[in-house]
Write a structure and sequence with these properties.
The chain is of the alpha+beta class. The longest helix has 17 residues. The radius of gyration is 19 Å and the shape is elongated. About 0% of the residues are buried.
Amino acid sequence: MEQIQTPHGIFTNNEFTKQSAQEVYNQWLADKDTPPLLTQEDFMLDLEFRVTVLELGIQNAIKGD
């Protein structure tokens, strides 16, 4: 198993995708600031929360809005 030590930890090769440890690390760097996609359940919970906030007229309850 190939592995490299980086400032972000130890990365190893991916035998399934045939990526080297360096390729895995480079992909991680490219993706690290991309927010993960919500599952359908998480999306629905967020939507229900936002609708409730709007219905109740709560101000400043949603971060970033």
